Amino acid sequence: MSEEKHFAAGALVSVLTVQPLDRLLDYRAPEGGCTTGAFVEVPLGPRRVLGVVWGDGQGEYDLARIRPINRVLEAAPMRAEMRAFLSRAAEYTLTPMPAMLRLATRSPGLGDPPSMRRVYARGMGTPDRMTEPRRRVLEVLEEYGGLSFTLRELAELAGTGTGVVKGLVAQGAVEERESPRDTPYPRLDPDLLGMALAPDQEAAAARLRAGAASGEYATTMLRGVTGSGKTEVYLEAVAACLAAGRQALVLLPEIALTAEFLTRVEARFGALPAEWHSGVTMTERRRCWRMVSEGGAQLVVGARSALFLPYRDLGLVVVDEEHDTSYKQEDGVLYSARDMAVLRGAIEGAQVILASATPSLETWANVEAGKYAALTLTSRFGEADMPQMRAIDMRGETLPAGRWISPTLRAAVEARLEQGEQSLLFLNRRGYAPVTLCRACGNQIGCDQCDARMVEHRFLKRLVCHQCGATKPVPEACPSCGVEGKLAAVGPGVERMAEEAAELFPDARIEVLSSDMYSSARALKARIAAIAEGEADVIVGTQLVAKGHNFPLLTLVGVIDADLGLQGSDLRAAERTFQLMRQVAGRAGRSERRGEALLQTFQPEHSVIRAILTGDEEGFWRAEAAERRAAGVPPYGRMAGIVLSARDVQAAFDLGTKMARGDGPLRRIGAQVYGPAPAPIARIRGRHRVRLLVKAEKAAPLQAALSDWLLQFPVRGDLRISVDIDPQSF
Ligand code: ADP
Ligand code: ZN
Fold this sequence. Notes:
Blueprint: E1 6-7, E2 12-17, E3 25-28, E4 34-35, E5 39-44, E6 47-56, E7 71-72, H1 80-93, H2 97-105, E8 118-122, H3 132-143, H4 151-158, H5 162-170, E9 174-178, H6 199-214, E10 218-224, H7 230-243, E11 247-251, H8 258-269, E12 274-276, H9 282-294, E13 299-302, E14 314-320, H10 337-348, E15 351-356, H11 361-368, E16 373-377, E17 388-393, H12 407-418, E18 422-426, E19 435-438, E20 454-457, E21 462-465, E22 471-473, E23 487-490, H13 494-504, E24 510-513, H14 521-532, E25 538-541, E26 554-559, H15 573-585, E27 596-601, H16 607-614, H17 617-631, E28 637-646, H18 649-661, H19 664-668, E29 672-684, E30 687-697, H20 702-711, E31 720-725
Parallel strand pairs: 10-15, 10-16, 11-13, 11-14, 12-13, 14-15, 17-27, 18-25, 18-26, 24-25, 26-27
Antiparallel strand pairs: 1-4, 2-3, 2-6, 5-6, 5-7, 8-9, 19-23, 20-21, 21-22, 28-30, 28-31, 29-30
Zinc ion binds near residues 447, 449, 450 and 468.
């Protein structure tokens, strides 16, 4: 790890900036000097940009022309551990360093937290002349009154230049003040008593407490069915970490889960922690960034990007529901939050806890290889057990066309209604119907921008593309043949299931829980809380409900189509289906009442369906591991996806073919290249995507070979190359 060093005024230093350049830039230390890690503002062409002092200058350029750093920002310097983390993460994901620095210093809507900010407010004066841009600035101040912005943020929000704001300040129409300092978060008290733990919980907690107090790195898989008390156990590790004076981070896969978790933190530690995710205001996120850096935040609860916050002393990272696919960032810098948590933990000397009812095969493999420790909670906390699981063989059920709730499932729901208990009908498909088909010509309405079909959403009264988000109204006539009144909704979505449920159970209160039905995370949270208290009889939901929400009155889960995830050629399909089905089933019977899960399937003898029903997790993983090992794919081999995108599909294919031929550096490490083939998402927002898959042995130096290989293919025009290490689908 590089040493901290002080540079006297005028000394040559190298600076990493947020601008997408492929090298560090040399500057002169400013008056008063600077140290490695200092956040600085540097001149770059006509602009001023954010950077971090990285080390000695290289002196490769004309020394006379090297410019001084404008100023050292007020934030605490970036620690050597954080710099090492960014470098290693960049190497692992093959991401340029400036992009890593952007991850560490901002998130959408947040300016540069290291900069001192000002507060602007409507002043007493009036501008000599009211122009359109000036009016917009004043409007923004009215709308966001009380929030603090940097000059640039304010100008950006008003869609104008900083000169306009400065002009208004000069005329007294806008007042500029130094912002008040951010305030630390209320102190969490690790000494407050937690719950009395069950024996298996206590045994696991003791191990984790010892780990957290050791000040050393270790990763532990914490496994136990939903409701077995994992959260309670890892909160004990958080307590030990806080008691040792270090900071803790808990990652959750879904913002909607935060509310319930915050309540538990407050109950356990007497105060609320810091929150970091897209649902948090800019002001609050900036406060979080600064307080994490200064030590005024002991515990952060957040989304994957919280891994890139500047912790002063990180002692524990918990990745809850570690198997969740949303931990893989699929846009911009492509990283797996689980892998990054382990990397950061190793660098910081922190404990990492991977908690899940259905751990990923990657985690299992690391336990097997002796890299991770394993703790298992064997029973559900209290009386409740894993629900009784049964298949409904759909080949033996009579159902009219366009209906999906079998008579058997219907009877089970009716029994729950009589007892005043809740049922969940699970279908992992948003919207009303996945396909809109013209009965006259057979045309299926597709997205204009992608290769995806448009999904009808009756609630929104529009067709929506689930790939790129494009929407259009449902047409009267078929866009292909022009015949009117022949468009038909084909297949079920949750909205349609709700319609069917309403017909079958006319007296029940039916509720659809799907991410697109709620305008904000807050609205969703509120609704989930109300449902948990009994404000619905039948919940119709997508995978949103599978993720850890606690519905105490829920005793029946009906899976509408258990076969859905098993179609397709993805090697991870079995793993995903297994995890999702076990997770969904675990929603039933989380209190004293025993739950039941019914899976509608056309292939009850399928090995994955059987494993789901019997709950033979280890057997399932052994079979799955054997298959992956034989195929040489992760976690027993290494893979990378290289996605080439362009407006012109031929250009993307041509480059792909050229790259596949020039695979020398890859061949040297024994890797194979497959493709080019259309990427899993073959066209999005008008850009065609072509993918090459690279497969190598576990021990091969894949990243180094990949960068050598990619160097041979400079991209031109609108072609873009992105590298996805450990792609989600292969
Ligand atoms: P998991 O994280 O494994 O799903 P939780 O920790 O959320 O499990 O526990 C499930 C439920 O049981 C929660 O409502 C929790 O408050 C309760 N619970 C867990 N452990 C205890 C305990 N030792 N004493 C009392 N209640 C507990
Ligand atoms: Zn689309």
